[in-house]
Amino acid sequence: MNISEELMWRGLIKDTTFQDLKWLDTPRTFYIGIDAGSANSLTIGNLAAFLVAKRLKLAGWKAVLLVGGATSMIGDPGGKDEERQLKSREEISANVAGIESQIKTLFNGLEFQLVDNYDWLSQLTYLDFLRDIGKQYAMSELMQRDFVTARMREDGPGISYAEFSYSLIQGYDFWHLYKTFGVEMQIGGSDQWGNMLSGVPLIRKKENVEVQAMSIPLVINRATGKKFGKSESGAVWLDPAKTSPLQFYQFWINTDDEGLETYLKVYTELDKSAIEQAVAEHLQDPSARKGQKLLAFEVTKLVHGEDKTKKAEQATEVITGSRSIADLEPSILDEVKNNLVSQKVKLPFKISDSLVSTGLTSSKSEAHRLIESKAIYINGQTIDRDEFSFEDFITGVLLLRRGKAYKDTALIELEN
């Protein structure tokens, strides 16, 4: 399967400036940019686009990966309802460093050119920008951009000149990268399409050359109809300090059945036959969640490595009751402790009190009702009593769970 066929099969092409997708099958040089104004980490929303970049690289394309040290000082207005809070150069530099590290991990030894647009945009004078770039764009064209019309509508918040100029700066980036590295295509999320189009006509006018752009569709959670990539606690980050490997693994293992095939195509490096087999096996017994387990393992391995993925897998098996907590080595037990609500108790102590204290139930009456209906588990086994026993504690801890989900589990420690 060539790269155009693979990207189409995986559902990774939305908009293009070229009509024949086979144009992708001749390797050239592309670039993808990432904003560094929000945080020092990529999210799984960014991950989808960077995996497209990796697929192009594996197909023979040369990759230029741009971190927006300069554009992040302004803030991309696309998809935003109001002006961003400006960040200092120091904050943005720290964010750039964190993102660069994650990109290197994702590309796992593959060669690419990493650039920061602060290196050239900081040298550009305002007059040069107006003469070389501003003269090339008609106001009528710029006013039709989606993010501009949304912000300029009657009840909209408006837009500053700085954010209005963002797409021109992105066009300049493409021109600079064409001249410096021979970049012929920009890729990015579909919410960036308006900005991505800025460089194509600019390079045509300045260099009399046709370059291209390709957008990647946003991944939608089919169960909710909303943009995919948020957990109950917010964004799912690639930085383990923001989203631990266990939390990351748990996000994927709890994904919806409706979107499983899409997530396997977008977020894993499994080939067509492996994905089709996984989907077929999942459909035979969805309750076993074999497809989600495969998805969780593959994506977590890409981001955090195989060792941390196996530990997250083992910890999950304990949390869901399919493995005894006694089987866990101390480092994995520590991972479980760090990622669960916990409580220390002295015996005698009522289970219903712990259910309320840890937030697993909203009241003691609800706790009593769930205990009576055998919907509460200790170390994976249902209970019908309202008091802990010494035997419940394995090496001084137990897992108290309501149902199967990670978010409905608490760790109870026996206090000496």
Short account of what is shown:
The protein has 416 residues and is of the alpha/beta class. Helix content is 44%, strand content 14%. It has a five-stranded parallel beta sheet with strand order 3-2-1-4-5, sandwiched between helices.
Question: How does the SSE layout of this entry go?
Answer:
Elements: H1 3-9, E1 29-35, H2 44-58, E2 62-68, H3 89-107, E3 113-116, H4 118-121, H5 126-132, H6 139-142, H7 146-152, H8 161-164, H9 166-181, E4 185-189, H10 193-196, H11 199-207, E5 212-216, E6 220-221, E7 226-227, E8 230-231, E9 234-235, H12 245-253, H13 260-267, H14 272-284, H15 290-304, H16 306-319, H17 330-339, E10 341-345, H18 351-357, H19 364-372, E11 376-378, E12 381-382, E13 397-402, E14 409-414
Parallel strand pairs: 1-2, 1-4, 2-3, 4-5, 10-14
Antiparallel strand pairs: 6-7, 8-9, 11-12, 11-13, 13-14
